């Protein structure tokens, strides 16, 4: 298979598009100071820029622009069938940022959004207001579903805001999924047992080929180890697994590398899952023609594209056999399509 060409290091936020109605918002002011050399363009609504037709996702990925806006309507959405709700009945994901600083070839955001630019909604307080009526019962919120909030934390401070809000609401559970090595937000908060930090880990060769602009495996592992030392609950995710010609060596070696660095007893779970995506998003990825990941001969059932059952089973059996050398099976969670 051919592999994607790697974009150059992204030049971040040469332009700030700002909705007129939030020009005086404190976070807008903070970001304008931080990017004082960026060109500011005042707009009426973020969709004027983000939803334009005929945009080039690939070109924008190497020169992302930042759009500051006010979220109208729902911040919270029901948890996806592609994600694990860990048995908590009320499971939502929050959409407070659209787009990601990272540029992973297998990411569904390429099929979901018309633009690679980033939209930051500055009115996170409205998300907390919308969530409050649910907090009489245990409720899980995935805060990094449409972005990587830890990666953009120095800009948004949203992770810290979520941690502060969770500390005040004893029924609120958070999952913060990330590839970031930036854990500064964690150092100023007291660890909370209802907050799980979930790091996505991949073999370095997969990172180099498909996870552009992300931290190296070693940097992620260093962040994991430091978070654990600080007292935070951590889940490790080898998910999505990208099946390549050297899967048999790359992924078992990854598990060896992880547990040569991280004490298996110090993590909550290990999650294993192979690539999966809605068929409609996969069609969009194919149109972009950015990566061989989009062109694997997946099977589609109930609008979900995954590896053929034999490949999917082989992936999980191989990785389970390796992972159980370090962890009991009850601490390993797997994602597999229901037949």
From TrEMBL:
List, alphabetically, the Pfam families matched. Answer: SPL
Cellular component, GO annotation: endospore-forming forespore
**What name is this protein filed under?**
DNA repair photolyase-like protein
Q: Which molecular function GO terms apply here?
A: 4 iron, 4 sulfur cluster binding; DNA photolyase activity; S-adenosyl-L-methionine binding
Record Gene3D superfamilies: 3.40.50.12110, 3.80.30.30
